[in-house]
Amino acid sequence: MNWLILGLEIGLVVLCTYAFVRVKVLSQRNTYGISTGQESCKRAKLSVSHNGIIDIDNDEITLEDTHPYPQTSTTSTYASKQEALKRIQVFIGTQMLPVKHEFTELYSNNFEWLREAIAFYLIGASDVISKQTGCTASDRQQCIKLALQSQLRVDSFTAEMLHSKVSERIEDDDVDEMFNSGARAALQWQKEKQVLPTNCLREQLNSWGVFA
After folding, report:
1. Which position among 29, 82, 129, 157 has the lowest Cβ density within 10 Å, counted as fewest Cβ atoms?
2. pLDDT of residue 48 exceeding 50
3. 67 touches 53 (CB < 8 A)
4. Residue 83 and residue 61: Cα distance in Å, rounded?
5. What is the pTM of this model?
6. How many other CB atoms sit within 10 Å of the CB of residue 185?
7. Which position has the higher pLDDT, 172 or 151?
8. Buried/exposed 89-102: b ≥16 CB within 10 Å, e otherwise
9. What's the CA gap between 53 and 65, in Å, rounded?
């Protein structure tokens, strides 16, 4: 009988200890305003989310993307720019070939005026092509800059200056006309895989009166 009473007393002590600990834990949760149900709800939201920046609105947690620039997005941006550069190179190559054959000293100081006229056409074409491949604004600008540097052999400063002239052009002025001609030619080339003679760079140089 003594052993039975002793066992009951030990069980009672264990039960009281467990109850005390449980009450203390629950009281701590309530201190922070989080009930058991609220906590499980928030844990569920956190577990299913794939985001990382936490915004709290009315005690509800939502998460933004852990990676502001996800790898898939970065890869896509890089691929878009590379595709744009490839297309720009092909388009410009076909348009520049007859000009280079005719003006063998195109890159000399005597033909700076001609290179400038060509640049506006190439900027319009490069801008359209890079837009259609999904490039960002900064990537489009970089594609244009690289196109001018490689095809017209201008330095970085000159490429930026030419791009600025296009950005500041007035509707229907000479720069605007040259830019739009390049854009139309690029659109036609991407759609029909060719450029009509009237839209080609060499013909446009004539129509602009560059050689007058």
Report:
1. 157
2. no
3. no
4. 40
5. 0.63
6. 24
7. 151
8. bebbeebbeebeee
9. 7
